[in-house]
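input
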Amino acid sequence: MFKKLFAPTDMTVGSVWKSIVAFTLPMLIGNIAQQFYSTVDTIVVGRYAANGDNAIAAVGSALPMLNMLLVLFIGISAGASVMVSQYFGAGKREEMSYTVGNCITVTAVACVGLIAVAAPLIRPVLVLLNTPEAILDGCYSYLMISLIGMAGMGYYNILSGILRGLGDSVSALVYLLIATVINIVLDVYFVAVLHMDVAGVALATVIAQFISSVLCLIKLARMREHFDFGWQYLKPRSQYVKTVVRLGLPSGLTQAIFSSAMIVVQSLTNCFGEQFIAANVVVMRVDGFAMMPNFSFGMALTTYAGQNIGAGKIDRVSQGAKQGTIMAVGVSATITAIILLFGKYLMGIFTETPELVEMSRYLMGILAVGYIAMAVTQSLSGVMRGAGDTVTPMWISLFTTVLVRVPVAYGISFLTRTPELPFGRFECIQISLLLSWCIGALLTAFFFGKGKWKRKAIRVR
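output
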């Protein structure tokens, strides 16, 4: 029983909804644990740093740029997950072996290149984004330490994506839980004991994620019954590298677009001052947990669709899309109700400043209903990506982010300016995000219904 729990899962047989739930639950717990990385960072610096509210603002202002640094690895992970799941479903051992090996090599090259390019640009970009002087050094320290430790973050994303493609969501969960405990202990030690403030939480996160990536690598090296793991498979082969890029590039670009929008909007956010920045950070921490079920169902449906398309079971994919989306919407509706009823208490976890708690609760209330829309978007996009159609979700994200979120945020800001509010109403940030989520759900449902994703599978049969 224990061995079966940590083994790859064949999602091409058995009950549809049970397969999705069994795969989603460990991944949901894992995603929640991963969210603890940044959440614990915020709580610890908020309560133990010399200037807690400014430390919260510094960590939050750094995150959009950190997400941008991770887009390469998110793209590789997405491409690897789709390829591995389809090869696994089709029983293609050699192709799966080369996919895993080539992804490890590509990730190493990406880490070196990223550090060389990004390191000299971090401080100038922070200045360009109007980062307040009071939090500039904290932002810079957080980003530089994260960049130097990027290999751990990158490899965890890629290796856990490969494990998910094999249907193993439990192993990555266990390794992430171990790393989360380490992260919490190191956060408290570095900040409360050594007084390293923002730099301390960044260092704790880097160490913890490096440990989780090593554990994932050891697990893959032991899965010899499903694919071969040797030096010969690390040598890049164009057909596999090109397929990973083709499948992963749209997902990477989607995240890059989203991160770019966050950076552009962060420039507007910074104009509203340190208190609003801190409130926005608190909102994003709660938002991270509220989004976890949606992301988990989306990733589960990617693996589910990939395996079943690899096995030629297209009707089973349609059943999974319907049942998975219904479950995701139900969970998100429950979360929305909790946020609306208990928002004040959720915000109070991060700070004891009454004004900050109230502002955060108000902003969270604006976003709450949007999580139901995101349940539809993530679930149906997950199916399309699993089928190999990673381009359609990218274009939808491009439209809702570039043509909806950013213009609406700046538009509301401009139209509501007064002598008392020189930058307009601060609600513009959350309203623009809510609108982009709702439009994205409508577009995703429309293009999913057209069914072109059914013809996008990679040639595995």
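quick obs: Residues 1-6 have pLDDT under 50 and may be disordered.
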